């Protein structure tokens, strides 16, 4: 940033500076500051005693303040204050000619100058209030622009009184919080331009409240003195209520708003807080660390004490207090301190690394433990804030009536508390604003919306050993040292309570723990006089020579990389020193890593000389290990050098690396266990289908081919179940557990539905107690709901069913949608129950009676609406008409005019507008829900063969989209987004009741059964739940799953895979898992056999780790891409896709996910290459996730809510959990650091639907990503052309999507056919040889 330019353009401003530092072990450390910019060291500010609202003739006072950028506020500087008139032909007050009107001088920081330096705008026009002082850099000024010209006053007339301010000495703005002294008075000032003002001052705390009344007959600056007694202990809140009576004259000669009376009575209220500093009970706590041998450890004055592991240091805590007794009043003084004897001191030592990870500042005990007596003083709002004359209201009414004649649809609020605003606008301007507000806005995102989501407790697939290195550190010694194990490391090595001696000193011994680093030693002290304090110091635990690991957290098979240690040698005083680093191998350990020489040849670790037998030596001894290679290096001026050795990851497992460093008789050894993980994780391929057995035996066969998998990783999974009762019970429970503040019409309808649906399953006699319990609760809820729906409760004989019972006023019309819901629900419930449940008979009678009332008011309202619209040349919408026809019947027709009841009849045109034939002509122009209503109208009229039913079913099939085990009807033809859950349930009901036979119906039932795209978040509507209950239960009834009796046997050749019997709708899902190794080779097809009656839903899946990385994306419903780019200063990508970067480069990894269909909960898992370490945004908020939200979110009441995924960051992978994923393309990015040198295998990024993992996709994998060493030569200092990866080509579709019999290579558009199939689209059988 050009600072000079910023200072020139902005007289006083600030610039945001952020720095990111990559540490020696590639840790990311960031910091930021705001830097103030100004031309001079000094700055001036002005404070007007009131905001005069640009009104001429109103006298105000001015105070000035001077600040130094180096030393803060400056008092006593003389500031020349001038009121200048601005030439109206100029646009600003920068360098235009200004005419001096008034002038005065004020001392900076003196608030009382407001009563001496008085000014007023002499007339309408533009003015500048300017305050200036002389400085060595020239004149320093501050300017406030005031006034309006006549045209501006006409455009925005006077609509409010001057804004009064309460100010105090030392405050350069309206007082909000000030500091006072107990027992004194606190003075504030207010400038009032009115006569006969009365002030009511209320102040106090939780102990006491006081009030004062002050009257000021004349205008001017008035002082109020608030006594700070017991009512202000601990601080107090002050509320000032100002009553201004009607004025006789103010001398205001400016245009005034229609709704404003400048002379009228009005009220002003202001509030501020006074903080009273408590008597200091704070102790001074000084913590020092005494080294074991002070004479042998000469240190600089600010150098920290350093000790070795196991050494003892003395923590000295000196506690001092104020002189006297804090409870004795005047005898207590903090001007001098004295030792605090017998103080209790808690001494804690904490690893500083832990405090950096979880910040926990030193607690100020004195303020934390003090009693909070502060209490805010509040008053009810004075309304109205001003009394207006009656002619102001009359003028406002005339304006509203005039505008309504121009635009009868004008939506204008008549607010008696603010008659200004829109009333002062020109008519045309206001009409334009209202016209804009009626225009349908383009799709977009509202501001200020909270991100939604839920925590996905998805178990992580096992892809290898624990993802992270473990440490075993060896002590410094020439001989074989004892091993310091990681499980012996202590984050809090000291936690002890001590007492101080007569000199105020307390001492405690600190034994350095095995772990190296800086420890924060904190001491918290307390005395018997309730005095508290704390202090802290730091101590370093280190060896004369110590090692810090510099290794990747994880590596993957195929990686070739460098790993080692950072050697720190202390006491060299800037002189380079030679260090010998030796790499050891454990001959008996895993062979997951190979040791390489600098030229890449494999070093023979097993045959290294000097290693003793593993069983004949102490496991903590270096003699158990074989030296592999050694390096000699020189430390730098800081006594550090990084030692790295070359390795190759060859197989899964863990390898212990031990490195020992020696220099000048000092040594240290460090052992690290590096996990080697798989190149990719487990994937799942699956198919789902149903077998409906309505006779004694059914057989089905599925081909089975074992994919190429990593040995020992594959399993064949089969899951089977019957019916949708679990979903029905879940919906019923959600309805029964929904509680509203008052009875709600829609939820009452939902409660009356449950018993009718559950009775189909015979739950009153079911074997499981849970089912019988839900049915019992449903009967009680049914009775309560029908009583709530009664007339005089939620139902009115005039307005029908209402959402809630009106409390203050009747509705203006019948809610046609709600009453149609009620009629349809009541008719289906009465038909299903049919008087067969004795406990429900009284409720059924109520429903039957209410349905007649609802039908009567609905048909009257629909006819009235149709007639009104017809007069305007319009028609009732198709959705409302379809819903009405379903509830009133296919043969319903309103009475033709003229009739005996002229208020309830329809002309021929209206009858045509309400005809069912109109719906038949517009089937493809109707929504999914409206089409379903039309089809159900004919089905409930017992006309399943009607042409409209077939047309609706065909339209649903053509708009159906399949996603794995589910399918949904799109919201509109050709669109990917699904229609709402209520629409899907009604479509399913149409399929079932029209006896449509297709596998897609079963998948649609799966979609409805799982609640659409997602469960949770915004609750489904009551009507969506009602429709789902009917649809799922009727589907089970049609498939024989209401009362199943079916046995299933699954086998592959002679191997039994699964056997299950389903004879109850509540039977749990049967599952089996068979390892690939247990199957015959090659495996025979899967044979599915059923006996009995009922529909069995089956999912067969293959779960395995592929043996090879595919160089092209894998697409099975989701397309996934990934690019790695360099991160810029703002963490945004600043380069193209990269293949090679220098060590310690900050990176942005962007994932792009594309799905043609909307999906439920989706997991996106990015496996990390070994040399790139992801940054957890929970640890470093500067690395927060970025995601696109233009098409990602949920629509609710015409607003679009963005929905970014939740992120879980681990060294081996970054996982994102989407609540659900809309059709389209979505991008998400996260931050990483190039942490280790090497050539790293890029594993794939996988995305899958959590509820049906076979809907998945993986990015291309197998490419190498290189992290080079910038110290090795200039070719790695910058990202060159060889480090940029060519952009990926757009995906190419395969013929017929390979018919599901092969894998589509999206890079070439060619199919890789499964065994036994051939052809361009894998649609042919391969020739047998």
From TrEMBL:
Record Gene3D superfamilies: Laminin
Ranges that cross the membrane: none
Domain EGF-like span(s) in chain numbering: 1290-1323
Disulfide bond annotation, renumbered to this chain: 1294-1304, 1313-1322
GO cellular-component term (any): extracellular region
Keyword list, A-Z: Disulfide bond, EGF-like domain, Hydrolase, Metal-binding, Metalloprotease, Protease, Secreted, Signal, Zinc
Primary location: secreted
Cofactor(s), by name: Zn(2+)
Subcellular localization(s) per the UniProt record: Secreted
GO molecular function: endopeptidase inhibitor activity; metal ion binding; metallopeptidase activity
A GO BP annotation: proteolysis
Recorded superkingdom: Eukaryota
InterPro entries cross-referenced by the UniProt entry: Bact_MG10, EGF, LE_dom, Macroglobln_a2
Name of the molecule in the record: EGF-like domain-containing protein
């Amino acid at each position: 940033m050009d600072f000079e330019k910023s200072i020139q353009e902005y007289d006083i401003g600030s610039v945001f500076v952020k720095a990111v530092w990559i540490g020696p072990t590639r840790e990311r450390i960031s910091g930021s500051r705001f830097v103030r910019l100004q031309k001079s060291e000094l700055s001036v500010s002005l404070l007007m005693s009131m905001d005069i609202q640009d009104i001429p003739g109103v006298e105000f006072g001015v105070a000035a303040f001077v600040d130094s950028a180096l030393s803060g506020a400056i008092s006593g500087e003389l500031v020349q204050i001038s009121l200048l008139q601005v030439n109206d032909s100029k646009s600003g007050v920068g360098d235009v000619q200004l005419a001096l009107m008034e002038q005065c001088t004020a001392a900076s920081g003196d608030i009382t100058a407001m009563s001496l330096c008085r000014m007023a705008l002499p007339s309408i026009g533009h003015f500048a209030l300017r305050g200036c002082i002389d400085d060595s850099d020239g004149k320093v000024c501050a300017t406030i622009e005031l006034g309006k010209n006549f045209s501006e006053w006409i455009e925005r007339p006077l609509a409010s009184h001057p804004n009064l301010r309460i100010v105090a000495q030392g405050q350069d703005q309206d007082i909000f919080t000030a500091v006072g002294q107990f027992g004194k008075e606190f003075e504030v000032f207010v400038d009032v331009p009115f006569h006969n003002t009365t002030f009511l001052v209320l102040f106090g705390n939780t102990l006491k409240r006081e009030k004062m009344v002050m009257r000021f007959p004349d205008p001017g600056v008035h002082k109020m003195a608030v006594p700070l007694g017991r009512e202000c202990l601990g601080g107090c809140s002050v509320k000032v209520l100002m009553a201004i009576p009607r004025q006789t004259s103010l001398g205001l000669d400016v245009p005034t708003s229609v709704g404003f009376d400048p002379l009228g009575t009005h009220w002003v209220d202001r509030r501020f807080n006074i903080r009273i500093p408590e008597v200091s009970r704070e102790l001074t706590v000084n913590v020092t660390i005494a080294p074991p041998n002070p004479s042998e450890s000469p240190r600089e004055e600010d150098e920290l004490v350093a000790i070795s592991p196991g050494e003892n240091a003395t923590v000295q805590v000196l506690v001092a207090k104020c002189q006297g007794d804090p409870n004795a009043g005047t005898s207590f003084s903090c001007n001098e301190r004295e030792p605090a004897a017998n103080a209790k001191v808690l001494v804690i030592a904490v690893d500083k690394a832990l405090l950096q990870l979880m910040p926990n500042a030193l607690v100020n005990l004195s303020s934390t433990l003090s009693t909070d007596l502060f209490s805010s003083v509040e008053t009810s709002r004075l309304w109205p804030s001003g009394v207006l004359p009656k002619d102001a209201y009359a003028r406002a009414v005339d304006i509203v009536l005039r505008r309504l004649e121009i635009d009868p649809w004008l939506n204008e609020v008549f607010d008696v508390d603010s008659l200004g605003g829109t009333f002062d606008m020109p008519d045309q301007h206001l009409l334009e604003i209202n016209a804009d507000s009626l225009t349908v806005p383009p799709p977009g995102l509202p501001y200020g919306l909270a991100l939604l989501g839920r925590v996905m407790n998805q178990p992580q697939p096992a892809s290898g050993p624990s993802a992270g290195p473990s440490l075993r550190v060896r002590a410094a010694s020439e001989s074989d040292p004892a091993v310091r194990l990681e499980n012996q490391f202590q984050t809090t090595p000291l936690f002890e309570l001590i007492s101080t001696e007569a000199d105020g000193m307390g001492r405690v011994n600190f034994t350095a723990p095995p772990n190296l680093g800086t420890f924060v030693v904190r001491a918290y002290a307390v005395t018997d006089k309730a005095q508290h304090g704390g202090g802290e110091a730091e101590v370093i635990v280190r060896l004369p020579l110590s090692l810090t690991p510099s290794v990747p957290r994880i590596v993957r098979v195929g990686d070739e990389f460098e790993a080692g240690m950072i050697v720190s040698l202390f006491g060299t005083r800037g002189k380079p020193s030679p260090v010998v680093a030796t790499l050891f191998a454990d001959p008996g350990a895993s062979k997951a890593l190979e040791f390489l020489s600098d030229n890449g040849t494999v070093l023979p670790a097993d045959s290294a000389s000097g290693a003793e037998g593993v069983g004949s030596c102490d496991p903590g001894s270096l003699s158990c290990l074989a030296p592999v290679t050694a390096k000699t290096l020189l430390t730098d001026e800081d006594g550090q050098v990084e030692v790295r050795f070359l390795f190759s990851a060859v197989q899964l497992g863990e390898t212990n690396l031990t490195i020992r460093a020696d220099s000048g008789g000092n040594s240290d050894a460090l052992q690290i266990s590096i996990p080697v993980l798989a190149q990719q994780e487990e994937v799942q391929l699956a198919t789902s289908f149903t077998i409906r057995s309505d006779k004694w035996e059914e057989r089905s066969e599925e081909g089975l081919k074992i994919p190429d998998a990593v040995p020992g990783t594959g399993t064949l999974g089969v899951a089977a179940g019957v019916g949708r009762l679990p979903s029905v019970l879940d919906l019923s429970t959600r309805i029964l557990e929904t509680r509203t503040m008052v009875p709600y019409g829609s939820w009452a309808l939902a409660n009356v539905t449950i018993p009718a649906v559950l009775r189909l399953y015979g739950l009153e006699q079911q074997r499981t107690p849970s089912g019988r319990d839900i049915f019992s609760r449903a009967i009680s809820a049914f009775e309560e709901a029908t009583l709530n729906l009664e007339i005089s409760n939620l139902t009115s004989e005039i307005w029908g069913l209402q959402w809630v019972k009106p409390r203050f006023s009747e509705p203006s019309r019948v809610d046609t949608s709600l009453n149609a819901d009620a009629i349809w629900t009541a008719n289906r419930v009465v038909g299903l129950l049919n008087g067969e449940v004795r406990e429900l008979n009284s409720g059924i009678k109520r429903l039957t009676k209410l349905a007649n009332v609802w039908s009567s008011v609905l048909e009257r309202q629909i006819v009235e609406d149709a007639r009104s619209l017809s007069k305007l040349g319009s028609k009732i919408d198709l959705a409302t008409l379809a819903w009405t026809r379903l509830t009133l019947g296919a043969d319903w027709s309103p009475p033709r005019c003229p009739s005996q009841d002229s208020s309830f009849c329809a002309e021929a045109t209206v009858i045509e507008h309400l005809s069912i034939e109109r719906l038949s002509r517009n089937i493809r122009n109707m929504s999914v829900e409206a089409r379903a209503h039309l089809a159900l109208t004919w089905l409930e009229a017992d006309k399943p063969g009607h042409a409209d039913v077939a047309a609706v079913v065909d339209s649903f099939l053509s708009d159906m989209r399949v996603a794995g085990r589910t399918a949904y009807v799109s919201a509109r033809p050709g669109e990917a987004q699904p229609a709402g859950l209520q629409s899907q349930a009604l479509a399913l009901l149409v399929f079932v009741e029209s006896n449509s036979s297709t596998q897609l119906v079963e998948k649609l039932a799966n979609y409805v059964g799982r609640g659409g795209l997602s469960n949770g978040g915004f609750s489904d509507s009551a009507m969506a739940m009602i429709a789902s209950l009917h649809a799922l239960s009727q589907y089970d009834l049609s498939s024989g799953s209401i009362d199943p009796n079916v046995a299933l046997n699954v086998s592959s050749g002679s191997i039994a895979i699964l056997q299950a019997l389903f004879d109850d709708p509540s039977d749990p899902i049967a599952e089996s898992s068979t390892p690939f190794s247990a199957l015959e080779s090659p495996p025979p097809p899967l044979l599915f056999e059923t006996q009995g009656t009922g529909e069995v839903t089956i999912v067969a899946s293959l779960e395995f780790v592929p043996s090879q990385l595919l160089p092209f994306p894998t697409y099975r419903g989701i397309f996934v891409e990934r690019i790695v780019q360099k991160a810029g200063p703002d963490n945004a990508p600043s380069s193209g896709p990269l293949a090679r970067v220098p060590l310690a480069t900050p990176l942005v990894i962007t994932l792009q996910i594309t799905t043609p269909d909307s999906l439920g909960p989706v997991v996106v898992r990015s496996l990390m290459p070994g040399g790139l370490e992801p940054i957890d945004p929970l640890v470093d908020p500067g690395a927060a996730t970025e995601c696109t939200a233009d098409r990602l979110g949920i629509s609710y009441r015409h607003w679009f809510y963005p929905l970014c995924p939740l992120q879980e960051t681990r060294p081996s992978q970054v996982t994102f959990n989407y609540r659900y994923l809309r059709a389209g393309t979505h991008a998400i990015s996260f931050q990483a650091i190039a942490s280790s040198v090497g050539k790293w295998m890029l594993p794939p990024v996988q995305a899958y639907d959590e509820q049906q993992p076979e809907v998945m996709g993986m990015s291309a994998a197998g490419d190498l990503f290189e992290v080079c060493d910038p110290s090795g030569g200039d070719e790695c200092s910058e990202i060159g052309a060889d480090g940029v990866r060519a952009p990926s080509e757009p995906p190419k579709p395969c013929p017929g999507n390979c018919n599901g019999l092969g894998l589509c290579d999206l890079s070439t558009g060619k199919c890789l056919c499964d065994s036994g199939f051939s052809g361009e689209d894998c649609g042919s059988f391969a020739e047998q040889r």
